[in-house]
Fold this protein.
Amino acid sequence: MNEIDAIAADWAARLDGASPGAEAEAALDAWLAEDVRHVGAFARAQALLIAYERAGTATASRPRTVRPDRRRLLWGGGMAAGLAALSVGGFWMVSAETAYATALGERRTISLKDGGTLILNTESRVGVRDAENHCRITFEQGEILVQTGTGPTAVRCGPATISSTGATFGLRQYADRSVLTVFSGRVSVTGQDAALSAGDRLRLAPDGAVALARLAPDALERELAWRDGRIALQDTTLTEAVAEFARYTPMKIRIEGAEVGARKVSGLFAANDPAAFAHAVGVTSRLNVRTENGIIHLSEPAP
């Protein structure tokens, strides 16, 4: 075990099941702010303790105070084995998080204490523990853009923890995966040997599987269109485009026919104006557009 892991194990053992006093919490915050690696190491140490408790290592009758046996558990080789098995970012912190959420079509910007910014897209939810010199975020659903400030920032996303200082990256949750996109700077991900840089996209599956890809600069720009309330499409099938609009507005677009849904569409559109999008697609793709009972229908023109 290296020195950082040893200190993290000591802190995790000291705080296990106990509320830290103001002095202890200040000391921990100062240590976490020194290096983004400290954040990850502390989270992993807490995760390992939780894993051992769930496996029956701890008993309910044991006093919830500082316990040297927990330090021995972590220091005596258990942490090294646990780190190899754990890809999750940890139990996070004893202190409660502040919850933030957005409704359908809503965007929200949160200013962080270290100068960073967190932007939530439509129907998103996060938990934030924000200090002057570091920030920890739990990504629960939707899509977020993180612009890190002067202190280390760590974001827990399912089985992974994303850590960075002075970087900008986005996270979006799909039904079967989460996707991390790096727009500037460098970030590290639990379980990944190399740091990711601008243009890298990492798919994170619930089982821990990952897939790395590179995005061109113009593709990165399209990924950020939602900050301005727009949807940027490039050779996107009409079926996929309609699904994207459904994220922002309750007004439905119904595609009639598989061939219509397979049509490709490109352009920049207002996310809250599906009617304008449908009209533009109708003109460029020569489709019939009609609205019935508040639903927009796209179909092949009558013969």
